[in-house]
Amino acid sequence: xxxxxxxxxxxxxxxxxxxxxxxxxxxxxxxxxxxxxxxxxxxxxxxxxxxxxxxxxxxxxxxxxxxxxxxxxxxxxxxxxxxxxxxxxxxxxxxxxxxxxxxxxxxxxxxxxxxxxxxxxxxxxxxxxxxxxxxxxxxxxxxxxxxxxxxxxxxxxxxxxxxxxxxxxxxxxxxxxxxxxxxxxxxxxxxxxxxxxxxxxxxxxxxxxxxxxxxxxxxxxxxxxxxxxxxxxxxxxxxxxxxxxxxxxxxxxxxxxxxxxxxxxxxxxxxxxxxxxxxxxxxxxxxxxxxxxxxxxxxxxxxx
Length: 304
What we know:
By secondary structure, the protein is α+β, with helices and mostly antiparallel strands. It is built from ten helices and ten strands.
């Protein structure tokens, strides 16, 4: 893929739906169309170039079937531009601003943003290893502008747990997060075992929630209650730095997000953090290659 130095150069490269389809076919199938229903590569392309028919299961399909783009009425040129903007922007973009840039409604831009965030979510993340910092934080639900009788305190906020792998000669710095209902031993244990390689050096604060899994790791702690934040190489400053980035993104760009959708915003921030050393065109290419799977509007707005 070409190296894009600006949005203008990107738009020049993908200025028609045909060019976008050609790129999507190459990204998804590497030049060999495959049936999304049965996986067969024995397919026939119809003269219009957009529709295929599988010779085995006899079903018709296009390159967008089985992807985030399936059944979309939005031109692929706008999809591609939105993906490029979201993956290369330093802090993300609001649905209102994206709507103005794409000449679509705010509702459409909001739906686009969330489907693109699905593309930024790692489907099969590798376990973190080396020195891994683990911490939790509350996100959202500010009481600042609420009337006194409506203030909810921490109950208005959502708990997020995260782990960051410190960068070194063998490993790149990498973060992963998850929404949890509360900081209990059970919730924290499940997250750590699912995301941190056993035997790694785990660094946390003094919370007792980590006691259940500390036998699986070399466990170091800092005592924040005693105002201890750094002891040699023992600290949680890296993960706390990521929390700061996440909250600045939410407060500065989106102002507030619902707990129902917070996980996707966390995934977007994690994607940006994990690919901060990657060129813009590569970030876009990685996102497009991760377009498998659907997120319908009804599923998106369904109450959890």
